[in-house]
Amino acid sequence: MGSAPLPKWASEPCIMGIDEAGRGPVLGPMVYGCLYCARSYQKTLASLNFADSKTLKEEKREELFENLKAESSLGWEVDIIDPRELSAKMLKREKINLNEISHSSAMGLVRRVLNMGVLLTEVYVDTVGDAEKYRIKLSERFPGVKFVVAKKADSLYPVVSGASIVAKVTRDRALRGWMLDETAENMHRNFGSGYPGDPETKAWLDHHKHPVFGFPTLVRFSWGTCTTYFKDVVEVIWESDKLEEDGSNGGKRQLKLSNVGFTGYKKKSEDIESSGKGRCKFFQARKLELVANF
């Protein structure tokens, strides 16, 4: 998703701003947006009244987004990160944290615009994590581009303010038009802003939790907010889960899927006799035994 074919001004030295929307909510996608233009257009850009999207009302954001889309001297792109992707990456065995996901998305936008043929010379980014480490990371990946990474960049640089509007409006529209995959009865869309502290969001989460399947795919399962809703649901502890080293489980035996019939109950080694007791039926039927010496 993004702007029209490459304009002539893209062959001039260009600047780009990058910002995100939806990092904190428990519902919906996280969106990274970028805005780029010729460096010679900076003064005009400053007169377009772009501002940090969080300080603007929805109607004003929509108006400014339509204005920048109609402006032939501006280009824009977005990366919409589905909540299912966020959950999958943050809950996998080798977890990918939100900062890494954010860095990857921002770098993906830089790569996309460069691959289009835009002569990027400067990129302004709202910081995620340590600003200097992030700048070095970006500079090493794209050595021909100057990077400025700063806190509140969306308030300091008009090109980042524009990117903030692109990201925020795109996320808002995506959330409004979200097609729920699930078809359970009594599902509704009154989920509020999607932020954990929003009463409407809290009520929606409580109403839509399922004792086995958790939440609809609109929800980011990896968010700590979700944990509080799972106190009275069916508990599953995966076989790969490890007991805490400090013994905080109170000496209780860990429940594994194999203990409840998925792969059969695995007996202790001292209970397994040479007759094949406790071994696979295939070996028992053929009276095969494990031998140490041939």
TrEMBL record:
<dbReference type="GO" id="GO:0032299">
    <property type="term" value="C:ribonuclease H2 complex"/>
</dbReference>
<keyword id="KW-0479">Metal-binding</keyword>
<feature type="domain" description="RNase H type-2">
    <location>
        <begin position="13"/>
        <end position="235"/>
    </location>
</feature>
<dbReference type="GO" id="GO:0004523">
    <property type="term" value="F:RNA-DNA hybrid ribonuclease activity"/>
</dbReference>
<feature type="binding site">
    <location>
        <position position="20"/>
    </location>
    <ligand>
        <name>a divalent metal cation</name>
    </ligand>
</feature>
<keyword id="KW-0255">Endonuclease</keyword>
<feature type="binding site">
    <location>
        <position position="126"/>
    </location>
    <ligand>
        <name>a divalent metal cation</name>
    </ligand>
</feature>
<keyword id="KW-0540">Nuclease</keyword>
<dbReference type="Pfam" id="PF01351">
    <property type="entry name" value="RNase_HII"/>
</dbReference>
<dbReference type="InterPro" id="IPR023160">
    <property type="entry name" value="RNase_HII_hlx-loop-hlx_cap_dom"/>
</dbReference>
<dbReference type="GO" id="GO:0043137">
    <property type="term" value="P:DNA replication, removal of RNA primer"/>
</dbReference>
<dbReference type="InterPro" id="IPR036397">
    <property type="entry name" value="RNaseH_sf"/>
</dbReference>
<keyword id="KW-0378">Hydrolase</keyword>
<comment type="function">
    <text>Endonuclease that specifically degrades the RNA of RNA-DNA hybrids.</text>
</comment>
<comment type="similarity">
    <text>Belongs to the RNase HII family. Eukaryotic subfamily.</text>
</comment>
<dbReference type="GO" id="GO:0046872">
    <property type="term" value="F:metal ion binding"/>
</dbReference>
<dbReference type="InterPro" id="IPR001352">
    <property type="entry name" value="RNase_HII/HIII"/>
</dbReference>
<dbReference type="InterPro" id="IPR024567">
    <property type="entry name" value="RNase_HII/HIII_dom"/>
</dbReference>
<dbReference type="GO" id="GO:0006298">
    <property type="term" value="P:mismatch repair"/>
</dbReference>
<dbReference type="InterPro" id="IPR004649">
    <property type="entry name" value="RNase_H2_suA"/>
</dbReference>
<dbReference type="InterPro" id="IPR012337">
    <property type="entry name" value="RNaseH-like_sf"/>
</dbReference>
<dbReference type="GO" id="GO:0003723">
    <property type="term" value="F:RNA binding"/>
</dbReference>
<feature type="binding site">
    <location>
        <position position="19"/>
    </location>
    <ligand>
        <name>a divalent metal cation</name>
    </ligand>
</feature>
<protein>
    <recommendedName>
        <fullName>Ribonuclease</fullName>
        <ecNumber>3.1.26.4</ecNumber>
    </recommendedName>
</protein>
